[in-house]
Recover the amino acids of this structure.
């Protein structure tokens, strides 16, 4: 099964899709006159705790929910696998995906606010499936996207996170993956059963705090690696455009591998091009599509442009600082090797950070899957979805890691195409 999925990923994540994805980022960067240049304005308005009618989320809550779903193992484990499989140059392409992807995220969220539905209770629901149905008048593509979102909720947002936590907890504290799976399922289930307001409230409190702590740890390590940092930056840049392997014992670092794993992991972390972040944006009480699009755009900035870059710099700097620490480690172990040098706390710091990020991602993605379930079969199916989601958290903690990540890439690739189709045919509706 693993080989079949890997072959499918090699086909889906070939040169055509990479060019389509990057081409979309570049196109909307130009069409919207570089919305990235307004990033500081976007950050300013994103911090506004706007009042709402009680049925919808404030713009800040939508941002926190989006970051909860995107700030996760992709920023820690995903970056590690990107470097191991694609070489240090993958960090550059991951970062570029974040820079350019802000424009695509803006476009996705703009359309989701524009073409969302309002329920009888006054709550807004939206996302690419509603854009495909209400904007393109294509119910079939909307249904396909919703199905992919539900599958992704169990893969990207559920099993991947649980698996990463169980692996880290076992490596650091020798805790059974079965026990971790049960604890994660109970903790996450308690929150998601409380509904969207409980999810938004928790994310508002947890996301800023855990992000600050993790960034502080990265900065401390970069201070420790300060002598290697310039060489690490040079290595990343040279490797990003190399056609030959220069990464020693790693799997490979050709331009194609750097592109594939850098862009794929960048897409996994910020989801620009997938469109799922626009599901949270559509739940905002804001009536101005531009206002909400700018707020949602900052999620890509924090997630990839800042968090993934710092993680990547820490990993590559450590490869120069202590080469022996990355010898014979699995593809998921490069981040752990780097953080082992953090004074006093070491591996424990990374494990705690990983658990915190994973819990919020589990919660954020449960909301995305819930909205997709509502789109397909209405509110009656939501309790069954939530129950199955909680059960899958346990199974995610005990299944093989390679299969989890390959399935994640496959699902992401399938979700890109209908979302890009909607962006292209409805591009004239998007204003900057």
């Amino acid at each position: 099964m693993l080989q079949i999925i890997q072959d499918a990923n090699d086909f889906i994540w070939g040169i055509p899709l990479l060019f389509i994805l990057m081409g979309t980022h570049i196109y909307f960067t130009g069409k919207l006159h570089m919305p990235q240049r307004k990033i500081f304005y976007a950050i300013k308005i994103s911090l506004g705790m706007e009042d709402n009618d009680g049925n919808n989320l404030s713009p800040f809550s939508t941002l926190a929910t989006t970051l909860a779903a995107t700030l996760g193992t992709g920023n820690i484990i995903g970056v590690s696998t990107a470097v191991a499989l694609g070489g240090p140059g993958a960090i550059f392409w991951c970062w570029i995906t974040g820079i350019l992807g802000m424009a695509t995220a803006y476009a996705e969220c703009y359309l989701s606010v524009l073409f969302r539905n309002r329920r009888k209770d006054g709550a807004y629901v939206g996302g690419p499936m509603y854009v495909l149905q209400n904007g393109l008048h294509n119910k079939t593509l909307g249904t396909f996207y919703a199905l992919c979102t539900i599958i992704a909720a169990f893969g990207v947002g559920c099993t991947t996170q649980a698996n990463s936590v169980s692996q880290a907890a076992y490596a650091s504290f020798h805790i059974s993956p079965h026990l971790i799976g049960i604890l994660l399922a109970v903790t996450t289930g308690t929150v998601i059963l409380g509904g969207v307001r409980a999810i938004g409230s928790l994310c508002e409190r947890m996301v800023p705090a855990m992000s600050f702590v993790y960034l502080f740890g990265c900065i401390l390590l970069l201070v420790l690696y300060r002598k290697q940092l310039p060489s690490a930056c040079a290595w990343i840049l040279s490797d990003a455009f190399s056609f030959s392997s220069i990464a020693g014992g790693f799997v490979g670092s050709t331009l194609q591998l750097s592109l594939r794993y850098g862009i794929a992991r960048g897409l996994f972390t910020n989801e620009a091009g997938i469109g799922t972040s626009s599901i949270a944006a559509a739940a905002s009480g804001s009536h101005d599509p531009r206002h909400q699009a700018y707020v949602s755009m900052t999620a890509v900035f924090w997630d990839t442009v800042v968090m993934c870059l710092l993680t990547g710099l820490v990993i590559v700097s450590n490869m120069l600082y202590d080469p022996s620490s990355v010898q014979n480690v699995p593809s998921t172990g490069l981040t752990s090797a780097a953080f082992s040098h953090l004074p006093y706390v070491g591996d424990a710091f990374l494990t705690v950070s990983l658990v915190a990020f994973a819990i919020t991602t589990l919660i954020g993605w449960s909301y995305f899957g819930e909205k997709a379930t509502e789109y397909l079969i209405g509110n009656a199916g939501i309790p069954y979805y939530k129950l199955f989601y909680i059960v899958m958290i346990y199974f995610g903690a005990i299944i093989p890691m390679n299969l989890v990540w390959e399935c994640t890439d496959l699902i992401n690739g399938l979700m890109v195409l209908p979302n890009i189709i909607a962006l292209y045919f409805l591009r004239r509706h998007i204003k900057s």
In short: Strands lie at 117-118, 124-125. Residues 245-253 have pLDDT under 50 and may be disordered.
